[in-house]
Amino acid sequence: MKEQLLKNPVFQMAAEQFDRTADFLKLSNDVRERCKWPKRLLTVSIPIKRDSGETEVFFGYRVQHELSRGPVKGGLRFHPNVKLGEVAALAMWMNWKCALMGLPFGGGKGGVTCDPRSMSEAELENMTRRYTAEMLPFIGPQTDVMAPDMGTNEQVMAWMLDVYSSHAGHLVPGVVTGKPVNLQGSEGRTAATGHGVAFLATRALTKCKIRHENATAIIQGFGNVGYHAALTMERFGVRIIGISDVTGAVHNPEGINVKELGKHVAKSGGVVGFTAADSIDPADLLVQPCDVLVPAALERVITSKNAGKLKCRVLAEAANGPTTTEADAILERRDDIFMIPDILCNAGGVTVSYFEWVQNLQRFQWSEQEVLTKLDTMMAKAFDRVITFAQRNKLPHRVAALALGIKEVANVKKQRGLFP
C-alpha cells in the first residue's frame, strides 16, 4: 500500500538507495521502517483566478519526512512535472543531507504542479499565497521552514512570509529562508548552493591531483545553482567549456565567459543563440571530455545509456538525484570518476538556510564573508568525513554519505523511542 501511494521512479530510486545503505548499516526492521517512510504527506488544491478571469485549480504538495531532530527544512518548487512521489523522494534526500551536515532539521519538500514560465507575476503571487494559506497549520519556524527551489525565488518567499506573518499578527522572518535581505534574509544565500558545489569540486580536483587553472568544466542546467557554480569555478581558475539549459546547449573548448552568457540568457531567455560558443545537442554535451561535470538541473539525467560514455574526472551532483541506480552501478564498476554525491555536493543551500534561520531567531545579521567562511568550513568538514568513511569501509561515496546521514537519524529515533 505504501509503495503504491508513492509509486514514482524518483521515489523508487531514493528508496533503493536507502535500502542499500540500511543493509550496510544493518538497521533493525523497526528502525528501518520508521526512517524510510515520511511522517506527513500533504496534498492541497489551489484554486486561483487567472488573468483571463477564468478559475483554474492546481495541485500542491508538502512532504515532511521526519521531525525527530528538529523542524522540517526543504524547498518549494513550481514545475509542470511535480508529483507527490518525486516530492517525497526529495524530502527523504533532504533528511539525510541535514543529518550529514549536522543541521538540526528534518527533511521536507514542497511543490506545485504548474508551469511558472507561462504565468504572470500576479498569477504566481495568487498561487503562492493560496498555497501558503493551505499550509498554515503545518508550517512555522519550529515546525517547517520552506526555501526556494526550481521555479521559485526570493520573491515567492517574500509572499509566503507575508501570508504567515499577517496570520500571526507580527513579522515572523524565520518561517522561510532564501528571502530578500531587506526582509531579514541572509547575505550569501542566493549563491550558496552553487558556491558549495564549486568549492567541493575544486577540493575533488585537488584529490585527483588536477590543478584548478588547468581544469575544465561542463554545467548541465543554468538556473541559480548552475550559474553560481559556473561563476565560482571560473573564479577558482577552472575553464567553463559547456553549459546547457531547457532551451539547448553551447560549447567552446577555449572557454565561455559565464557573466556574458548570463547577460545573454537574461535578454533572450536561454543559452541558445550565444554567439561566443557553438551550439551542441544537450545530450552530447554530457559526454564531452572535461575534468568536472556538474548536473545541476533535474533528476535522472545520468542513466545506464550515458554513464559508460562520461569523459569527466569529477562528477559533482548539484541537482538532487541526477544519477540513476543503474548508472551508479556502471560508475562504480568504472572506478575512474570521483563522485561527489548530491546530499553532500548541493548541501550549501540548506546550510546557509540554517544560518539564515539562526540569524532570524537571534535578530542578528552576519556579513557575506562570515556566511561563506562558515559555509566553506562546514562543507570541508563533511567532505573529509565522507571520503574518510568511504575509504575506511571500502564504500562508494554515495553510500558513505547516505550511511553517515541515515545513521544519525536512526540513532535519534532509537534514543527518542516510539510513542505508543
Automatic annotation (TrEMBL):
Keyword list, A-Z: NAD, Nucleotide-binding, Oxidoreductase
Oxidoreductase recorded as keyword: yes
GO molecular function term, any single one: glutamate dehydrogenase (NAD+) activity
Binding positions (substrate): 73, 97, 353
Biological-process GO terms, alphabetical: L-glutamate catabolic process
The keyword Oxidoreductase appears for this protein: yes
Binding site for NAD(+): 193, 224
UniProt site (Important for catalysis): 149
Domain Glutamate/phenylalanine/leucine/valine/L-tryptophan dehydrogenase C-terminal: 186-417
InterPro entries in alphabetical order: Aminoacid_DH-like_N_sf, Glu/Leu/Phe/Val/Trp_DH, Glu/Leu/Phe/Val/Trp_DH_C, Glu/Leu/Phe/Val/Trp_DH_dimer, Glu/Leu/Phe/Val_DH_AS, Glu_DH, NAD(P)-bd_dom_sf, NAD_bind_Glu_DH
Residues at the catalytic site: 109 (proton donor)
Transmembrane parts of this sequence: none
Record-stated family: Belongs to the Glu/Leu/Phe/Val dehydrogenases family.
UniProt protein name: Glutamate dehydrogenase
